[in-house]
Amino acid sequence: MKNAIRGGLIVSVIVLVCACSTEIAPVYKDASQPVEARVKDLLSRMTPKEKIGQLICPFGWPMYEKISAGKEGNVLDSIAITDNYRQFIDSLGGGMLWGAFRADPWTRKTLETGLNPTLAAKTYNLLQRYSIEHTRLGIPIILAEEAPHGHMAIGTTVFPTSIGLAATWDTETMEEVGRVIASELRAQGGHISYGPVIDLAREPRWSRVEETYGEDVYLTSQMASGMINGTGPKNNGFDKGVISTLKHFIAYGIPEGGHNGNPSYIGKRDLYENFFPTFKAAIDAGALSIMTSYNAIDGEPTTGNKELLTDLLRGQWGFEGFVVSDLYSVDGLANDHHVAADRREAGEMALKAGVDVDLGASCFSRLEQSLQEGRISRKDLDIAAGRVLRLKFALGLFDNPYIPEEDVQVRTQQNKAVAR
């Protein structure tokens, strides 16, 4: 009897030890769980600072450097992350970058210092691995790239500008263009495409007319829908498509005097009859991101307009994606429009209006103090961070964060044939 009791106790202890040593994976790491359950679980584990980190999006090109060695002209395929990126992840817990692969005079990335498609894929994996391994909860980053008529990077397929694409009136070809853009972005690690630009260009002096599909609401709506049908993850599956960011919300192409970012003078009927339908059509086609504009309508900056960004987009149209500011347009609430006292108040105003991501990252990075002082709520943060995380889960970044680095399929014969 004693031996039986002793044996039973030993077995019980072993079972208890095994149970204690078996760690149950958090819900947010369980790929079998619904996206909403994973988002809710992750948000419950995050600190306010970690949530704010998901809402900031600085420049991507200063986050890496290409290391050259050997004889002149013999450039080795070696990439290193920079202190800028380490600080972005280690100090801010950042969640998004813009234009990491961009190469032009502004970024100062050239054919020598920039990334070809294979190096871009390697760089993405390097950046992603550091983020996952150096954040407390292993949250992946997401990369946004300029791609209104082809990915703006070295070695990619280039299509005509949007005004040229619109001249074809060919929505089927637009879908093919969209599929090429999405495939080339995904092959290099990009998940968000900035474009299409669907402003109605009714001010010929405006400097960005060539970025648009022209002045007609019907043509613009059809071409935009064709592009979204081609790029959109809702149509192609989240393992193939990209999140297209519609630019710029709203009435951006009719600035006073033709000057970029000037006020737009427009009546409510014109907005509803002509300017809103292009965005509504693209959202109905599956667009999951919208960019605000620099302008103001009736004296109210669009980047701080809750009636537009929350009541209309979310309430009336049922938009399910996230809203990103144009570059430094949150700063503009203080610096240009003078409706906020400083950048911190500008960030508070934009967040509560419905902006989820601060492109430029100089205002939302101040929100932790705003939360401590009760100027924003935890709910405000959870809503915005949840919108970003929801798409990261849907895109599979938590489950399959890395991409192949060999045989990167960019500017293939088939893709060039579409362009031709």
What would you say this structure looks like, in words?
By secondary structure, this protein is α/β, with parallel strands linked by helices. It has one domain: Glycoside hydrolase, family 3, N-terminal domain (TIM Barrel), CATH 3.20.20.300. 42% of the residues lie in helices and 10% in strands. The chain is built from 16 helices and 12 strands. The protein has helices at residues 2-21, 35-45, 48-53, 83-90, 117-134, 162-166, 171-188, 217-231, 233-236, 268-284, 306-316, 332-335, 343-353, 367-372, 378-394, 413-419, and strands spanning 56-57, 64-67, 78-81, 96-98, 142-146, 192-197, 243-249, 289-292, 296-297, 300-301, 322-324, 358-359. The strands form 4 sheets. It has a 6-stranded parallel beta sheet with strand order 4-5-6-7-8-11. Strand 7 (243-249), helix 10 and strand 8 (289-292) form a beta-alpha-beta unit. Helix 2 crosses helix 15, helix 7 packs across helix 8 and helix 8 runs parallel beside helix 10. Mean pLDDT is 92; it is low at 11-21 and 69-75.
Brief rundown of the structure:
With 420 residues, this protein is an alpha/beta fold.
